[in-house]
Amino acid sequence: MNNIGAQPVDVVVVGAGQAGLSAAYHLRRTGLEPDRDFVVLDHAPRPGGAWQFRWPSLTYGKVHGMHALPGMELTGADDSRPSSEVIGEYFDSYERAFGLRVHRPVEVSAVREGDGGRLLVETSEGTYATRALINATGTWDRPFWPRYPGQDTFRGRQLHTANYPGPAEFAGLRVVVVGGGASGTQHLMEIAEVAADTHWVTRRPPVFREGPFDADRGRAAVAMVADRVRRGLPPQSVVSVTGLPVTDAVRRARESGVLDRLPMFDRITPDGVAWDDGHTVEADVILWATGFRPAVDHLAPLRLREPGGGIRVEGTRAVRDERVQLVGYGPSASTIGANRAGRAAARAVGRLLEHTGPAAEPAESAA
User: 33, 191, 204, 282: which has the fewest Cβ within 10 Å?
Assistant: First the structure.
């Protein structure tokens, strides 16, 4: 497609969560200026990335491993406040402190090949013709809903972690929680305090991790996720290979039977779930804590996916297109990984810009 009507810019950053803000910070460190050399686009209504959508009962004190953004620590936070508020305010302060000028709410619908080696980024505020793209869209917008026989016949309520409201709405109800990750266990433990009955269902037996999660174990876990990405396979979350940390709350829940796990059911009935051996569980609610998938559908026109279903990435660079950097994808999906990926992506973009074409005109408006 031609670039007529598109606003030229050197770099477009899509997403203003942890990875996107880290990338924008490091782009500034290389001498690039927001709204002159690069733009940051975010579809969310306010600062905070995916954190702004977290349920109210996930207080800051319950957050595991929130790593500070580069150049500015998060200090003095009240552990009893919702993490959505604490981290949202922190991201807001960060954007203002470094003048990142995030454009929001802006939807990115597609990224296509343009003229002159540029990419065309089609958005709700117009089209940008960019020399490089840093994609930091995360996963929150793509909740994964498994499909099971009879699912449409269930007379109760089905919801996903993405719209989990907190435990109060489950008071007095019979709840089946599906999913063996950190979110599933957190939901289950707090719902069990108010529900009439709870059952925990997972595809695989959960792996609980005793003891500290040291640097060596962290590097090994990240390496496993990175290997999948290098081979072009869909990424797993880092948490999926680290196991579930055994906190005091988890220990109590295991002792009380709340975390007694059932294997995955075979079908859903109008009144609950059932297994082929004849076992059934009645339920008013099925809560799917079944994770998320990378939100990269807007990149489909570039045909970056490999036969294995994922985008093959070396470092942060998409192997099929050196102009595209993916951050917060695969091994960089953790908060500390997102920070490092943002720095790596900014450096890679800097090298690319040194070897390709003239600088862009100021990006004051794409409308």
Answer: 204
Which residues of the chain fall below pLDDT 50?
362, 365, 367
| Vertex 249: Cα angle to 244 and 252 (nearest 5) | 105
* CA 14 centroid distance within chain: 13
**61 and 121 in contact (C-beta within 8 Å)?**
no
What pTM does this model have? 0.87
pLDDT, tens digit (0-9, with 9 covering 90-100), for 148-181: 999 999 999 999 999 999 999 999 999 999 999 8
Task: Kindly write down the DSSP assignment for every residue of 48-109, as one continuous string.
Answer: SGGGGGS-TT-BGGG-S--PPPTT----S--TTSBHHHHHHHHHHHHHHHTT---B-S--EE
CB atoms within 10 A of CB 248: 7
Amino acid at 95: E
pLDDT in tens, 38-58: 999 999 999 999 999 998 888
